[in-house]
Amino acid sequence: MTSGTLIRQARMRAGLSQGDLSERSGKDRAQIARWERDVVQPSLETLRELLQACGFDLDLALVPYHEARIKKALERTPQQRLQAMLRTRTR
Fold it and tell me: 37-70, pLDDT tens digit by residue?
């Protein structure tokens, strides 16, 4: 999901127009439109401010890659793990 999609979905779920979001956030309406179309990317702080103006919060967690792979593997059944391991070895 892109930041533009995230902004647009949050705005629409909040029932706001781009103009409404502009007034709530203090950001230019035309700039909001550019962000929503992914013409330019907002900073992380700006993204957080826009989502908060829609009534949502941005919660980011940085997880080391190997921990994410372990978690994903543990969510699989033993048969799925075996199949994934065999696919990896044939590459």
Answer: 999 999 999 999 999 999 998 877 666 667 777 7
- Of all helices (H) and strands (E), which one includes residue 19? helix 18-25
C-alpha–C-alpha distance, residues 6 and 50, integer Å: 10
3-state secondary structure of 20: helix
pTM for the whole thing? 0.67
For residue 50, which of 37, 35, 70, 71 has the smallest C-alpha distance?
Answer: 35
Phi then psi dihedrals of residue 37, to 5 deg: -85, 0
56 C-beta neighbours (distance < 10 Å), count: 16
Distance CA 51, CA 58 (A): 7
Residue 2 has pLDDT above 70, yes or no: yes
